[in-house]
Design a protein that fits this description.
Elements lengths: L1 H53 L5 H28 L1
Helix pairs in contact: 1-2
Length: 88
């Protein structure tokens, strides 16, 4: 009887660890998405605003590209940090 209770306790602890890993992985994926989308959206909106203000709508394209490059840079830095933390 006692052995059965201890076994279920270990099983519950493993289940909590697995659930925690799933939530941590989900949070990391959300961070990757936000780190990519925010610079793109902000730079694109700024380009649209600036293009409307000076009547040059083509200025949006370079700002979109700058936002995409900034997003890729954010993702690269985040992935590099995660990789370095895993090595330790």
């Amino acid at each position: 009887m006692v052995l059965c209770v201890l076994w279920k306790g270990d099983e519950m602890r493993d289940e909590r660890k697995n659930r925690r890993k799933v939530f941590q992985s989900f949070a990391m994926v959300m961070q990757f998405g936000l780190n990519m989308l925010v610079p793109i959206v902000m730079c694109t909106l700024f380009g649209v605003w600036l293009g409307g203000k000076f009547d040059v709508p083509a200025i949006t394209v370079p700002f979109f590209i700058a936002g995409a490059l900034a997003g890729f840079r954010n993702i690269f830095r985040m992935a590099k940090k995660i990789y370095e933390d895993d090595k330790k």
